[in-house]
Amino acid sequence: MGLEVVPPGRIATIVTYLDMRVPPPPAPPPASPLTLRRWDEPDPERYRALFRRVGGPWLWFSRLALDDEGLRAVIRDPGISVHAAEDPAGGEVGLLELDHSVADECELAYFGLVPERVGQGHGRWLMAHALALAWRPGVTRVHVHTCTLDHPAALAFYRRSGFTPRGTAVESFADPRLAGLLDRELAPHVPIIE
Predict the structure, then answer these.
(1) What's the number of domains the chain is made of?
(2) How many angstroms separate the CA atoms of 62 and 122, rounded?
(3) In 3D, which of 90, 83, 148, 140 has the Cα closest to residue 110?
């Protein structure tokens, strides 16, 4: 057994890859006051704002590192669909991004709720909608990945939702808080090592 030292300014995480190869039986989504709205032509700033609110506590940063043109190219790609979960007042409280760019599969690229909506059953509601949208005709595999930086219940949630772990990897990257992509006070469970 060996340890690899992570240099100052970087973060390491263990990534778990999961997939589902058979669609779940049809069922209505669990009850929730939320609604799901597709963004046909997502605005980069609006997208970034929701992405930060949902993913900031877990150090999601990849979309924040893109300029407007690069982000537009991703989120307006014909194979990508972006959806916001909205509360009854129209406030955006969840993000679902699906990637159908590979003909026979779908990736749940981003899936999450703002922290104040976690643990109230809305995740099951959002997953029911995600799977209904992911399993369109011709899809034979739906996949997602999570990591040790995500919510502590994420891996168990994906497994309960019907995903099977298929592999792991160790990922290391520059701390997005030090790069100014996220506020320094986010993710206090992950220390900043300068």
Answers:
(1) 1
(2) 25
(3) 83
| Chain position carrying tokens 């922290």 | 115
Q: In CATH, what number is assigned to the domain containing residue 165?
A: 3.40.630.30
Question: pLDDT tens digit string along 131-162?
Answer: 999 999 999 999 999 999 999 999 999 999 99
pTM of the model: 0.93
183: left (phi over 0), alpha (psi -120 to 50) or beta: beta
Element (H, E) at 183: none
H or E stretch at 41: none
Q: Which domain holds residue 139?
A: 32-174
Query: Residue 64 is which amino acid?
Result: L
In a domain, 39, yes or no: yes
C-alpha closest to that of 106 among 9, 2, 21, 11: 21
Structure tokens given for 112: 């999450």
